[in-house]
Structures are given as C-alpha cells and as structure tokens.
Amino acid sequence: MADEPSALLQILDLEQLEVNIFRGLSPDESVQRVFGGQVAGQALVAAGRTVPDERHVHSLHAYFLRPGDPTIPIIYEVDRIRDGKSFTTRRVVAVQHGKAIFHLSASFQVDEPGADRQAEMPDAPDPETVPSLEAKRAAAGMPASKRWEDGLRPIDVRYIVDPPWWPQPRNESKGPMQVWFRANGAMPDDPLLHVCAATYASDLTLLDSALLSNGMTASDMRDVQVASLDHAMWFHRPFRADDWLFYDQSSPSSSNARGLAIGRIFTRDGKHVVSVVQEGLLRVTKTSK
Asked: Of 156, 162, 203, 208, which is the active-site residue?
C-alpha cells in the first residue's frame, strides 16, 4: 500500500459551517452529476461528526432524490433525532439549489459483547493476481480510458468478473459480480473515515450485478438508463478501507424498471464486515432488436 494519503480523504473532508451544518465539495472532474457514493459517504461523515467517538455507525438507510450538481458545494444538514443510552440516531439531508438531493438516516451504537457468527466468504483469487482496469486495457490493446470509472476515482477496483459495460467479449455468466477494492492511498486510523470510504465504494459496482444478471453487455448500455434509487448498509465488524476488501454482489430480482442488488463485503482474512442492499433504476429506453 502506498504511503501517500488517499485522495478520498479530500472528498470526505467536510467544512463545518455551523452547528449541525456541513459543506462538501466534488472532485474537479468532467461529469454531469455527482457520484452517488460520494454523497452517501459525505452525509455519513456529517452525521458521524455529531456523535461521540465511542459510538460507531452500525447501519444507514438512504434515498437518492435528485442528481447532484458537481459544480457547486453540497450542504449537509444534520438532525439529531435521538441520543439514547446505547444508540444514537441521526438524519441528514443533502441540499443543492435549495432542494434536497439526498436523504440519509444512520444509527450509531456503543460497543457491546454478544453473539458472533457469520457465513463463510466465497472463494476468490488473491487481489494481486487480478489486473487493474488499466492493465486489462493494455493487455487487450485498448487505449487508456478517460471515463471516471476507469481510474479517476480514489478507489482501486479489481474486477474478478468483467463488468457488463466492459467492451471486450466476456463469458456468459450472469453472476455473481465480484471485485476487490481498497482506497487508493493510506488513511488515518479514524474508524468513521474507513466506514465512509466503504460507503463511497459500495455504490461503484453494485448495480453492475443487476445488469449482469439480465445478460446486458456493453452494446446494451446506450439503451439502458441506470441510477441508484436507495441504499442500505449494515456494518458488522471493524475494518480498514485502505486494505483489500472483497465485494460479493448479486441481483435476486428485476422488475418495473428497477433492479435489486445485494452485496457482502469481507476482509482479506474472511471476516464479513459489511452488508449492502440497493435498488436502482434499470430502465430500458429502446426495444432490443
């Protein structure tokens, strides 16, 4: 792992404007809308900054309401819903142009002993044996991509299964979607930042599983409208986002122009640390020939 600080830290570094009010910025990239994982990660930072350090986030539930404008700041307004003996609840609304673009509820808990079990991690190749997208492009004789998905983001993603938008022919497998990921660069020890980094990364590839399960390929992408609608996460055990994490994703259902995706995140030594569920827009805009 490189010693340079992760670029993700700049994205997650919110400015506090007032009590319960924070401001976040978007990277200087040529994109039409703010990446959903960025808004989710920043909103969770805002919530976490109003909670005592000994209380750690254990779940979040969120809705993507409007596309974010990457050219202006995002204002995060935190509502301190409840501070109990063991649990703390926060609600965050992200605002741009005077309108809510994102809504998040998060729950925090003090550490408590209890039952501890998990399902086993699926078999996966070592992350060092899985090529980066840049290496895959070079091996296929393809030019370097300028798409933000292919390296401009601050997450190193290694696709074990080719994503549905990958332009080269792939096998006909319809799932699961599996990747290794980690923050591109070192991160401090603050547990909240590692959770927020995983929140950011969790939205990068999850809906790919819905496309994959429906047999969609790169040739279909221009005829399909995809967008995150809602997002839920449960954080089971501590982890570091600058270490390799295995993301196992599948899609059990697609209907009514929506696709449901479920993900499990494991540490390299097999600990199940996060569960993710998302429903996304999966609208076919043109009838296939």
From this structure: 203
Residue 250 annotated in active site: no
Catalytic option among 26, 213, 228, 250? 228
Catalogue all structural domains in the chain, each as residue range(s) with its CATH number: 8-111+129-284 (2.40.160.210)
Coil, helix or strand at residue 272: strand
Catalytic residue among 38, 105, 250, 278: 278
pLDDT tens string 94-118: 999 999 999 999 999 999 999 999 9
Give me Rg for the CA atoms of the chain: 19
The CA distance from 33 to 167, in Å, is: 23
Q: Is 203 a catalytic residue?
A: yes
Length of the chain equals: 289
Q: Express each pLDDT in 213-266 by its tens digit.
A: 887 776 676 788 889 999 999 999 999 999 999 999 999 999 999 999 999 999
Measured CA to CA, the distance from residue 145 to residue 125 in angstroms comes to 25
